[in-house]
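FW: tagging you since you asked about this chain on Friday. Here's the raw sequence from the shared folder, copied in full. Didn't touch anything.
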Amino acid sequence: MALNVNHGAQGSSLSHISIQWADSLNDVNSQVNRWQTQASTLPFRHPDRAVIAHNIATYYMSRYKATQQKGDLDQAIVGYAEALLRGMNHPPLNILTFEHLTRALLTRFSDFGARGDLDHSISYFRHLSNLPLEVARIKRLDILNSLANALCGRFEVGGQLEDIDLTEAISQYRVVLTSCPLDHPSRFSCLQGLAGVLTSRSQRSGDLNDIEDAATLYQELLDLLDKEDSDRIWVLMNLANVYHIRFRQTHDSEDLEKAISRYREVLLLCPPGHESKQTLLENLAYSLTSRFKNFGHMGCLEEAISLYRVALRLCPRGHPHRQRSLSGLAHARSLRCLRTHNVEDLEESINLERENLALTPPEHPMRPQVLYNLSVGLETQYKLTGDTGDIEEGIEHLYEASKLVKSEHPLSRRILQLLAVNLVYRFRHRGADKDIADAIKHYRNSISLIPEGHPDFSSMLYNFASDLRVIFSRTGDAEHLEESIALSRSAAEYPFSSLHHRLVATKHWTITAHTARHPSTLTAYTKALSLLQRAIYLGPTVQTRHEYISGRDIAYLRSLSMDAASYAIESRAYEEAIEMLEQGRGLLWSGMRSLRTPLDHLHEVEKSLADEFTEISQALEAIITTTDIRDFVQTLAGTDDDGVAIGRKDTFARDLAEKRRLSEQLDKIVLRIQALPGFENFWRPVPFRHLQTATMGGPVVIINLSKYRSDILIIRSNHPVVHIPTPSNFFHRVLNLAHQLSETRKSHRLESKKYDRVLRQTLEELSELVGQPVVDRLMELGIPEQSRIWLCPTSVLASLPIHAAGPISSHINVKRYLCDIYVCSYTPSLSALIASRSRNLSGSASGRPSLLIVGQPDESLPGVDSETRSIEYLVGSGSVTRITGEAATPENVIARIPMHPWVHFACHGMLQPGRPFESSFLLQHHTHLTLLRIAKSHLPTAELAFLAACHTAELTEDGTPDEVLHLTAAMQFSGFRSVIGTMWAMADEDGKDLSEYFYSKMFAAGAQVASYEKSARALRHAAQKLRTEKGVSLERWVNFVHYGA
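HL: got it, structure written out here
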């Protein structure tokens, strides 16, 4: 506001002062020029020069609001100060000028970060609160409110938990709220300020009461606003902030989803160019990165990066808030690098932080945070490149940051922790004892600063624990080892940290304890397996669960069950080892299989409860197996003028909310079932005595692969587990075999001599490592040749043709493979094998089974027609339904499969590397019957599936072999008791030949009854015929495998 002065006689002009706003920027410029001209005509000590100085200052403020040029703001502050120094013989105007100066200083602090301006504004607000403000028509409540706001700002900069500023700010807000009625105009801004400071205090202290009070205050603010009120934008945004902070404290994903939902709501309300748009985009992006950290869903991280880029465009170079967007984008790109190991992401992240640092002078309150963020990126780069220069630079930045921030500030503990981490890195290279001493000191100081109940406690403990393990390896000090294990255990068991952080803590606990043969090792593995299941099952769909478990940041945990079993085996706890393998492998299938738990006995005891379980389980399975797996956030509209995608339908949030609701209902039902006599173990980890029932048809051979030790276990019905030790180099030899075979197959086509040679060498080595020891021990156990056995390989062994290990020596001096001596089948797990035997029979045992043939010939598969006709002839046309050509659509096939206990596919099989749930059968018009769509089927009467297509039992290279995500496993899960698949590409002519041999054996001597239980022997017979009568190459007959009963 400007003071317009009518210049008459000296001393009389002040009586004609009035207040008005400048209408435009041109008005501002012309008014400034006019007042400067008038001032030059007055004597130096003329009283109106003070009024003119006030006016010029006010016009500069108007221009600053339009231009955001710091020079205008500086001129305004100088003008107000000059007006006060010259003195106006008019107390109301002196008070008004003093208020304007105070607010201008506060604006300069807010926009440019000079701490001195903040300190002066607080001092001036305190002084103003003691003046007779009424004479200047200034509302005292407004001054008190502004003082509280400024105190909050200083608290944010200083960060002292018990700072007098915080106490005074809350006190001032309370005074204002007590003094003004519900309809008072100051009440709104006071509610806003108090909610903000309570939010800030909660972020530092972790006090849930503060964040609950803040949520209540923001809700009251919303109630004061009409739906069309523009202030709803920032109130909703702050309420979303509160939800996100509460999520950080409680790790309740419902709060995170509320935050994201509110941010999206605000995005629809926020017009292009709105002053809050940048902050809104940053906050939504930050929440999406939190969702990514929680569930591992890359779509969320990609959207976050996109939003940060738009936010950065909205604040070009020179914008006072550009640093926030730079920091956010840098963090998101760094996260993507950790998941994908794309070095370009990390390089851009560091470059963004360097730009940020250049924009942050030494006195800027954000400089410690920027230094810390840059050091985080440098540490990540060091871990990828090993360049010690990154560590040296990081240490330098962290020491600077530690001097700029108070010890009580939350950032201080993170700075000290990262400094300790970097010092340990440097110790590894230099071996300087001082680095170790300083690192331990900084770790202890950082942990002492974290308040009780803070969610970051686990991560801080396990970082210290991890480096203590490193220190122990260098010093041999047993105290360091014991403390490392104790800290890891505390971190894993800390209830207030996220599941992910606690899970990572178990990594350090299990590794350290296992290596040291510590008494807590099995406890550590038990805790880790439990947390792993819980963390994976947080995801609403199998796709998000797969993304989480395949993430590089938890790669170690994918071998968790095998490592746990190796320790148990070393302790001769074979049954416990098998239970751990079952608990930690095939988690995606077992999670869905639990929803299909047989309820026959429960139906007899409590039918209504069984029906409730079935209803909720089916609804939950529908969410988990949703087909919308490629993009959980679909754009329904375009972009606004700021380039922000609008009208998004967040299907991830929808699925997560529904999954949460159904899971809570199911948990309650399960508790009611477990309360029934005889159902105490319902839905609990499966004990060995039940797992052992998988061997009712023959021995199961488990081959456990672990970096600690590898072992072979033979399980038989009503017998103790038999242990076969392996050579000490077993682990590395198997890894080399799997890698060599995979790389050769990718670089050489079918029937390649190079691949034939590598495959032959692989089978010979598998014979030495697995085949011969297993055959010898089975013979010792009295298991006669030609008996059925089941192979249950772990890790990359699942990609190797163990069934064809050989040649295996014998007394008859004939070249034989494992599958010649025993009839081999595979099973992903013991539970899968049990499930394949527990379903109701279709009734086909009383006659020929009904067979559905799905064929899709094309130029590369000319033999499909003859293959399907041959099968129809052998089985009998009255028992066969053929779907080929135009009729072979995914919808038609899915609709027909339940009508036939047997099904035969003769078409292309397609792999989707990295997206196993999209592996598929290629049908008419290049449509796809995907693995996920098959898994959604529930086929209790299905018996036999013959998948004469490429890659149907081949694992994609996604780093999760123990999840066994291929088409053969999907068919088994959907209900088929026996499934025949292929480990790699198959030759077209083999389809017809193998099928003829197979079905001829199934219906030998004109048999009218054929059981799926004969399928493993029939497949072995057919493969032998290919080998002996057709003389096919090694890879063509080895290709075919049998899964299930």
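FW: Confidence is low (pLDDT under 50) at residues 1-23, 628-637.
HL: agreed, and The two ends are 87 Å apart (CA to CA).
FW: great, closing this out.
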